[in-house]
Amino acid sequence: MAPQQVYGKRPRIRKARLPVDDSVAFAVDTALDNVTTSISRLGLHEEKAPESDRPVLASISDNKKKPATRKRSDGRKTVSQAHTDSSRCEAKGTHTTAPAAGSDASSPEILRQTSSADTAPKRTKVPRESVYADQTDPSRTKTTKKTLPSTDHAQDQPPAEPPQPLQNTSNLIPPPLQPDLPPNTAAHIAPLLPYLTTPLTPFTSFSTTLSPHFNITKIAEASFSQVFLLSSPSLPSSTRSVLKLIPLLPPLRTITARPTKAQRCLLDLSSSPGAVVSEVRLLSTLTSVPGFTTFRALHLLSGRPGQAFVQACRAWNKVEKEQGREGSWFPDPGRKGNYGEGQLWAVVEMGDAGMDLERLLMREERGEGETEKVEKRRGVLGYGIMGIWDVFWQVVLAAGKGEVACKWESRDLHCGNICVKERGGGSDKESRKELAARMAKDERKGRRRKLGLTGLEVTIIDYTISRAEVVNELGKKEVAFIDLAEDESLFLGDGSVEYQYDIYRYMRAAAFLDDPLADVDARWNEIEGSGDTWKDFHPETNVVWLHFVLFKLLENCQWSAMDDADDNFEHGLFVQREQEVEAILRKLHDLLKLENWAASGIRSAEDLVTMALKEQWLDVDDVLGLLDEKGDRTKSKQAQSKKKKVTTSQS
Q1: Predicted structure pTM score
Q2: Most buried residue among 323, 353, 534, 571 by CB atoms closer than 10 A?
């Protein structure tokens, strides 16, 4: 990344938004605003559909002998995040919440999307000061090259009305821990308590409750958390959970004056309870937005990690080192001296959304799982250019819906924060053959869809430094955000190592100067004198990140569509569609180039959706098509299940 920071204090000079016809604007409103309504019509709240929203402990309880009449109580969902390489802000402070201008709207409707979930984020080390040093030496202050306009920080808001768990699972962890906590520790964790699904619990009890029922596998590390997958061959795949294990900072007064190396390392990798609460409040709003991650539960643990988690950590670390990587940043959980009995942990439980796009692209770049005979036309999961098309537009649509629903900005939409799930697929040629057959079937039914042919499902995760309007306990809107003006290191990464590090600087310049390639030094006085801060809504940042996502998707793509069409109707029709998609992606690639910023007129994800509808790249039906298809699949499974029961009873 490059230098400096850009904030502002004067109205920005903006290019006019893309002019559209009234009919097109109406189509966009219909496409975006009716997605939530469409979901509510899909039967996702029917008897077995909510299974994927349930905490893993609820799944355990279902396997025990209980009265058949026992019902699960419904409740409002919240969400938590994966702490990414750029989430250093979390250790320095929490999301600031401030009243949103002219906001007295009611809370957005909380809806469930069974396929969305969180998974492992990108793990990249970012230069950071020691958290321990900041906490133990009051005289130590952070200096930056330039003093930026500060955002008025609201005092810590009292916790919002706590989300209700889907099921009371407090009796499932034997036994609940009810210690006489020191007053300073009790006050320290108090902000978390209203959001918990279970009471404060020993880590060992949590581990022994899960291990007989689930395989516990560590799948990744983020800057401030470890990520585990819970799976079981005896349970439906919808019960798979991802656990984000976040070590919590202890109360300041309890930090020893001379910590060991392991203790100091752990302090640097820990998060404050307030940071976790802020993320829960932010992400509970986004849970209702299609394409965003789904929350299941928040747990609070104490003590050393349980044996099942120790084994998972050591197995992951062994594989990492065998593959020539650095290994875990966290101290070995199996060594007693590394973690004390008073260590506190927040565990955020979510569903499994598949593999993050970064790992997926790396895997396909290496050609893993493919034979030497398969040519390099992989795209995403072997679907070629059609996979790229589906993934990109699902990201755009999710971002656009987030903008409309709660004025959301990601500010960190790298490929590690996008998850992709597939219904099936194999090698490149097999996948394309399957798509050709599927497309021909649609054609015979008189339907030619422009999106969703691959069946890939995309979820945006990790909102550590995101901005959004949330609703507080009084029903008033306020803005949850991280003041990036306080974290110079976010904008200092080396772009020659990874293009992503340049993007942070580009989004900052786009937000405050409406020019991602602007010379910040030369225009510093203009920025310093403007009235804009990171609290404000800058949807331009989403456009900069969408440029990056498309860049990464196309980075290793072979552009020319296969021209080996034969007389086969299915194959020829599919090749024709591939060629159409490639032509559009070429236009998009040029349109989103940052050097074309002034001419493009695209200043938000919503603008990009508007253009897609105007240019007929997408239809309104395509925007809702994926949701309708999920509904059809759900109804089909239910019909098959009923038919099977009838057949069994007759026999």
Answers
A1: 0.71
A2: 534
Kindly tell me the number of DSSP H helices and DSSP E strands found in the chain: 20, 12
Phi and psi for 450 in degrees, rounded to 5? Answer: -105, -5
Residue 126 DSSP one-character state: -
Lookup: tokens for 506: 């580009």
The SS3 assignment for 296 reads strand
CA 237 remoteness from chain centre = 20
Alpha carbons 489 and 393: distance in angstroms, whole number: 31
Question: Which among 372, 364, 400 is positioned nearest to 546, based on CA atoms?
Answer: 400
In the chain, the amino acid numbered 647 is T
Question: In sequence order, what DSSP letters do the residues of 23-92 get, joined into one string?
Answer: HHHHHHHHHHHTHHHHHHTTTTTSTTGGGGGS-HHHHHHHHS---TT--PPP----------TTTTHHHH
DSSP symbols for 311-341? HHHHHHHHHHHHTT----SSPPTTSGGGS-T
How many other C-beta atoms lie within 10 A of the C-beta of residue 76? 16
Nearest to 506 by CA among 592, 396, 393, 398: 592
- Among all chains, which residue has been given the structure tokens 């999961």? 381
Sheet holding 295-302, edge to edge: 201-202, 295-302, 344-351, 241-247, 225-231, 215-222
Q: Which residues sit opposite 215 in a β-bridge?
A: 231
Tens digit of pLDDT for each residue in 70-102? 333 333 333 333 333 333 344 444 566 676 655
Query: Length of the chain in residues, anyone?
Result: 651
Q: String of b and e for 535-565 (b: at least 16 CB within 10 Å)?
A: bbbbbbbbbbbbbbbbbbbbeebeeebbeee
* Residue 57 near residue 297 (C-beta atoms within 8 A): yes
Type and span of the H or E element at 553: helix 540-554
Closest CA to 415 of 609, 556, 526, 319: 556
Neighbours of 14 (CB within 10 A): 9
C-alpha dihedral sign at 90, 94, 99, 104: positive
540-554 vs 357-366: helix axis angle to the nearest 10?
20
DSSP secondary structure of 224-277: TEEEEEEE-TTS-GGG-EEEEEEEBPPPGGGS-SS--HHHHHHHHT-B-HHHHH
Domain locations along the chain: 22-75+129-164+185-636
pLDDT in tens, 228-286: 999 988 888 777 888 999 999 988 877 777 778 888 888 888 999 988 888 888 878 88
Determine if the peptide bond prior to 251 is cis (ω within 30°): no
Give the residues of the chain that fall short of pLDDT 70.
Answer: 1-53, 58-59, 61-97, 99-180, 364-381, 423-430, 446-447, 559-570, 624-651
Radius of gyration of the chain, Cα coordinates, nearest whole angstrom: 25
Tokens of 169: 């699972």
First-to-last alpha carbon distance for the chain, in angstroms, is 68
| Selection from 289, 526, 268, 547 nearest residue 403 by Cα | 289
Residue that has been written with the tokens 């072997």 in this structure: 382
